Amino acid sequence: MTSTDNFWSAENIARRAGRAQQEFVTEQAAQQQAQRQDFMAVVGRTLVDIVNGYTANVRPAETADVMRDFQRVFPQAGPADFRQSVDALKQEGVLYESLGAEGFMGQRSTRLHVL
Description:
It contains three helices and two strands, in the order αααββ.
């Protein structure tokens, strides 16, 4: 009888602990992905609707204006939440961000477009 045949051997205990940890990490990642998808389904749709509202009024969707409207709809959201949402939608190919006109002291604004 070898040490790997023993259910309570150190090697078997370590192997089971490693598998349990890996399963936990995988399950946690799946839950976070599902939460992100649920969040983006609501927030992403709202963000697209805000940008489309500017387009419908034949106005450029300046990022600063869209962020202001976004924070009106989601008062608990900060600038970082808005930026993360925009970046996620850009990665998914839903939004495009372009440089706007050059402003005060050469600072450039950006505009959002729905693809």
